[in-house]
Amino acid sequence: MKQHPRMEVMCHVQNCKFNETDYCFAPKLEVNAKGNSEMANSSDEALCTTFQPQ
Questions:
Q1: Handedness of CA 2, 31, 6, 26 (dihedral sign)
Q2: 7-53 pLDDT, tens digit each
Q3: Sequence-ordered strand ranges (E) for 1-54
Q4: Are 18 and 26 in contact (CB under 8 A)?
Q5: Could you give the dihedral angle defined by the CA atoms of residues 17, 15, 13 and 10, in that order, rounded to the nearest 10 degrees?
Q6: φ, ψ for residue 44, nearest 5 deg
Q7: Nearest 5 degrees, angle CA 10-CA 13-CA 49?
Q8: Less packed terminus of the chain by CB within 10 Å, N or C?
Q9: Which residue, among 33, 34, 31, has the nearest Cα to 48 in the 3D structure?
Q10: Dihedral angle sign, alpha carbons of residues 26, 33, 6, 22
């Protein structure tokens, strides 16, 4: 069975609950396209839906 990737994820959203010294410590990360689309053409069209305010 294939394992999920493990990597450091940088986060510069200072008021995110999972941000610790500019790294994301969320148990899992979810990124989605803005709106009803499943496609993004740039980072401006993608959202970190894992974000939770402190």
A1: negative
A2: 999 999 999 999 999 999 999 999 999 998 899 999 999 999 999 99
A3: 19-20, 23-24, 31-33, 46-48
A4: yes
A5: -30
A6: -65, -20
A7: 85
A8: N
A9: 31
A10: negative
